[in-house]
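The protein record filed here.
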Amino acid sequence: MIMRWRYLLMVVALLSFLAGITVVRAETSCDGKNDQDLIDCLSIQINELNDSLEKSRAATAPLEVEINKLSIRIKSIQGQINTATIKLKQTEAGIKERSEKVSTQYLVLAVKIRGMYIRIRSEPLWVSLLSSTSMGEARRELAYRQESNDNDKQLIVSLIQEIGQLEEDKKSLEKQKEQLAKLQTELDKQNTFFQGEVKKAKAYQTDLTGKIAALTELQARIKAEKEGTFSTTVGDVPLADDPASRPDYNPGFSPAFASFSFGAPHFKGMSQYGAYGRAKSGQNAEEILKAYYGGIEIKKDYDPGKQISVQGYGRMDIETYTKRIYEVPNSWGDSGGFEALKAQAIAARSYALAWTNEGSGGAICTDQGCQVYKNSNKGGKWEEAVNATRGWVLVKDGKIIKPWYASTSGGYQESYDALSHRKDGSSYQTPSFWDTKNGRGGWTSSAYEKIGESPWFYKAWYKSRGGGSCGRSHPWLTAEQMADILNAWVVRYKSGKEDRLVPLEGCGGGNPYSISELREKAKGLGGGYERVIGVSVSYSDGGYTSNVHFDTDKGGVDIKGSEFKEAFNIRAPGWVSLKSGLFNIEKK
């Protein structure tokens, strides 16, 4: 069997490609870049690696096809070799049988010749003739001997011919066996070669996939930014609002669509702006805390000298620690929110004690991953609130709970286990409820966070936490861009996870489909929307958007709220995103 040139050229091309890609990878580095540049650089690297992976797979695919074809040919040729081998074995057995027969004939002939020789030597023919009783008998004797001689001559000739043919057949047999062995070796060599090349290509692809996964771990912060999985609190001063994030912003085109999130962080425990709104509405600290944490007890005689460990600052008593917490602004105390400061002081004190296992565990961190701590007393209204609640902690069944809290939940508080930190198996679920004066019915107009004027209560997001906007000045999308989100939903939920369903404009990494490419892909799955005409949403009593209805160029489309949120955050351009499962979509 002879190797085809196209196989060889294909392998050479693949090897050349692999060598070239290795050089490209080695030249790309993101060392020494700041956070935003690092993310952008990682996106470029992932694009390059994905491109390399696709090219490698494209180069390997025809080779695998040829190997499959080769395998079929190998099986066919192997079958023919096996058949030829069987025939050669049969021929070899026949030659052996013929050789044994010739040997027997040779022995018989030798005996006959020896007998003839003896007769001739012992009694010459003329003696027999003279001693014969009659001429008739003499003639018969002569004829008999002549016939016997002729038969012997014929036997000798046949024997010589058979011996010659046997020698030729033996040589032919050995030659054919040698040829078959070479064919088998060549066949095995080619099969091993091609399989080895595919193995190397697959190993290269695996290496690329691993590198992409490693980069994707770093790039996960991008997804976290878009999905709102970060944890945050109010901090020292209220967060500044962005006019472009408000519903009254004019994007300069119509129709325009923007997705507005209610709240942003984890939606569990106490809402700080909600507590501020409750205080302004006349509730005291105890009422505020019991609203958010349910049937807990406020223990008012905890040891104020209890020592805890603070990361980077050593040990200190719990009251000194609490005076150095920078979670809510002092200004709230002068604008009707002093009881919210007291509620925050009790929650912060309890949180630190639960985190450190009442001082016997590890050190508590000093950023928003735990609580914002600075190594100096905050003073002002905050210190007044800490002093007013000295020794107050939140307990359930005598055990200090871990009171979660965050800036803004969007009007609905989710339940969580406030004793899950304990190793004794304790459990206590906080209540889930609409954080408003009038429950679900008065949600958007009477939410306590709205009374507290949270800038995150109802907001459209288009920037990262670091302030990057990927070149965008607002979160509004065109009718075609919103239709692109619908096509992403179609592809995501009807064909499975797609690695090219990433944002356009280069901020999300990957190798994104263009709008037209995604439309064509969705078209084969029942989508292929070109523009959105109108939109409406419906909410669940459980505090989330249950359904989104779109009017499109292809008719009405209904999408589950959770599915739309995922498709939106996967595909929306730049950093445009939804932070909450409770959201609305506005059109202008």
